[in-house]
Write a structure and sequence with these properties.
This protein is 70% helix and 10% strand. The protein contains eleven helices and four strands. The chain has a four-stranded antiparallel beta sheet with strand order 2-3-1-4, covered by helices on one side.
Length: 264
């Protein structure tokens, strides 16, 4: 059902792809929340442009993707950086990490790399300045948000805790699925493949793709057969599986009206 596929993709497949970086971002954000004092950037570094430069300098060597950058930026805003500085971090970080710059430099050259960096940095700074200029600071003030949350919670407490637990469980499952469960299945498949045998037969009378599909489909349905592939030009049927029964294959070919010439 389409609805089931949508939820499966959103909460299992897609989350499996981003779970690693999301977990890394949450862990780094938690460390920032614990280590850096509240309003550190407001009280210790009062120059907004200097904070943007610091965010740029921190984000460039930090090898994190956009998924991990979001919780980190949120934690930094709680410590006093402006939304513009957070935007600089979000824009410049994923786009200017060392791996990306190395790849661009090697494939497109240093001149292109310089233009790329200049464009990203300039765009990030301009966007950050515009955000700080156009949007009211009160929207992002940690003190105001803290007072508002204290008196009027955005969500009921039970809903906040339950959604946090659900998201945590989904991330844990996604990580287990990607790095544990899938590897177990891969190891089992490798073991099964190592136990398979391959046999090649000559089949006469196959002239078109319909013949090819007919033989492949019917042979695959036999017990112990994992795959069956026909090469029309060489008249070969390549069969892979466990305990391949040649008599069953011969009978199947005969019933289809082709001539079984035996095994090579």
């Amino acid at each position: 059902h389409p609805i089931i596929r949508i939820f499966k993709y959103a909460y299992i497949d897609f989350l499996s792809d981003i779970a690693k970086w999301l977990a890394i971002g949450i862990i780094i954000a938690a460390a920032i929340t614990i280590i850096i004092p509240d309003n550190f950037f407001v009280t210790e570094i009062k120059n907004e442009y200097l904070i943007m430069i610091i965010m740029l300098a921190v984000s460039m060597p930090l090898y994190v993707c956009a998924t991990a950058s979001v919780p980190i930026a949120a934690a930094l805003m709680m410590k006093g950086i402006s939304p513009g500085a957070a935007l600089v971090f979000l824009m410049a970080g994923p786009a200017t990490n060392a791996a990306t710059m190395l790849l661009i430099g090697k494939t497109l050259g240093r001149k292109t790399l310089a233009i790329y960096l200049f464009t990203i940095i300039l765009g990030a700074f301009i966007s950050g300045i515009l955000i700080n200029s156009l949007l009211p600071a009160e929207w992002f003030s940690h003190k105001v948000m803290g007072q508002h949350i204290h008196h009027h919670r955005f969500l009921p407490e039970w809903l906040s805790y339950s959604t946090t637990i659900i998201l945590s469980l989904l991330i844990i499952y996604a990580l287990l699925k990607r790095y544990v469960i899938n590897r177990i299945y891969e190891n089992r498949n490798n073991i099964n493949k190592s136990q398979m045998e391959t046999k090649i037969f000559i089949i006469e009378g196959m002239t078109c793709n319909h013949c090819k599909m007919s033989v492949e489909t019917n042979v695959k349905q036999l017990n112990g057969i994992e795959s069956a592939e026909v090469n029309l030009s060489s008249k070969k049927l390549i069969v892979k599986g466990k305990q391949i029964n040649i008599d069953e294959i011969k009978n199947t070919i005969d019933k289809l009206g082709y001539e079984f010439k035996g095994q090579i």
